[in-house]
Design brief:
421 residues; 82% helix
């Protein structure tokens, strides 16, 4: 494994095209938002909800429901907008619009004074972020070749993980040391939100200015009608194309578990009463570990079938979820954070590139719309189940136990996909 890690460092020196670099830069930009959502944001929401007299178990449930609502909205709108983006010249426009909306919403997070208003703004930002990724992921067929997809996709996640640590660390200085600096916690949070929003925009613009849509559908006279018509045809074709259909079904379950863990880790730890500073630092370690781990998977994908690597990642996540059920100590959370970092980049990057290889290039937007339904759109199920089971039983651990089952179901269906290769 050390040999592959060293080769992973070497692979970063392999020459990337200017367009590949700018595509990777957006991973660096948007990852700042998702790291904030996974760390500081749940703690900030907890302070708002506690001030309103909301119980710890209910705080976790409300946060889960908000995340579920945002992903459900994306699940319903993503395929439609993805199909619309496939028309000539549309992809860049909708990508830039969604990215800017997400970043500007993030910059305004400090404004709401009530927990409910804050959740509404959070839903808007999360929806915009997720929609931008539909268009961004579908750009990969225009950005690089099929032979380089695994490598470029893995590098995107790798640099996203390590790059997002920069605005996070700056934010952490203000959030954890606000009293020493001589500012209020509200001012500290405002600075943190604006820094991450500016970072997101800064790393969005190079791709937005340079991207050219190579594969597209020509415009038709009735765009709205033809968009829904093409979406219906795509759904029908996806069902008939057994490999694509089974992959999406498998992806629905195993990536549901992955994104639920990402979205709920800090909220889960906070609800268990674990030290806030320790939680933030542990999740920072996740990002740092994910950088070399993603590079290692980039190297492995050149020697080992990517389907086998995806299976390994799914099984690893199953054991991570099982371990999380009994978690109640700080050191266990740190161990969990390192384990997640080892496989998080690999399963995301390889799933994205594996899917990109089996879909039609000129319909990448609409197919990645379906991909997002089964990805971030599907994660509403995991977060909803955690919130529902926790509120029903009063035990957070039982809510987390449901996630381990998702990985087993995902493995079962993905195994069927590999038999078709």
């Amino acid at each position: 494994m050390i040999e592959y890690f060293l080769k992973g460092i070497k692979i970063m020196k392999d020459k990337l095209t200017k367009l590949e670099i700018k595509w990777i830069m957006y991973d660096i930009g948007n990852s700042a938002f998702i790291l904030l959502v996974s760390t500081i944001l749940p703690i900030y929401f907890n302070s708002l909800s506690s001030a309103a007299g909301i119980a710890e178990s209910d705080y976790l449930s409300y946060w889960s429901y908000a995340t579920s609502i945002s992903t459900l909205i994306v699940a319903l709108t993503g395929p439609i907008l993805g199909t619309f983006a496939d028309y000539k010249g549309n992809k860049k426009k909708v990508f830039l619009l969604s990215a800017l909306l997400g970043a500007l919403s993030l910059a305004c997070f400090w404004i709401p004074g009530s927990w409910f208003t804050f959740l509404i703004l959070y839903v808007v930002a999360k929806v915009a972020y997720s929609l931008s990724l539909i268009f961004y992921d579908s750009m990969v067929v225009d950005i690089t070749t099929e032979e380089r997809m695994d490598s470029v996709s893995s590098k995107g996640y790798a640099w996203g993980y390590i790059g997002s640590c920069i605005p996070f660390l700056i934010s952490l200085v203000f959030v954890l040391m606000y009293e020493s600096i001589g500012i209020s916690i509200t001012t500290a949070m405002m600075i943190a939100f604006i820094i991450n929003a500016a970072w997101w925009i800064l790393f969005t613009l190079p791709l937005a200015f340079s991207y050219h849509q190579k594969y597209y559908i020509e415009h038709q006279s009735h765009v709205v009608r033809s968009t829904f018509s093409r979406l219906g045809q795509t759904l029908k074709k996806a069902k008939e194309q057994k490999k694509i259909f089974l992959f999406l079904l498998a992806f629905f379950f195993f990536i549901d578990g992955v994104y639920t863990i990402i979205d709920m880790a800090t909220a889960y730890g906070t609800s268990l009463g674990l030290d806030t500073t320790g939680l933030l630092l542990a999740l920072l370690v996740t990002q740092i570990v994910a950088f070399p781990a993603s590079l290692t998977f980039a190297v492995l994908s050149k020697k080992v079938d990517s389907a086998k690597l995806i299976k390994i990642c799914i099984l690893a996540y199953f054991f991570i979820a099982v371990f999380a059920v009994q978690l109640d100590k700080q050191w266990e959370f740190w161990l969990l954070a390192v384990a997640v970092g080892c496989f998080q980049g690999g399963i995301q990057a390889l799933s994205r590139s594996y899917y990109a290889k089996i879909i039609p290039e000129n319909s990448s937007g609409e197919y990645f719309g379906l991909f997002d339904i089964c990805g971030k759109g599907a994660s509403f199920l995991g977060t909803f189940l955690i919130g529902f089971v926790t509120q029903l039983t009063g035990h957070q651990n039982l809510g987390v136990a449901v996630i381990s089952i998702m990985f087993l179901i995902g493995y079962y269906f993905f195994n069927k996909v590999t038999k078709l290769d």
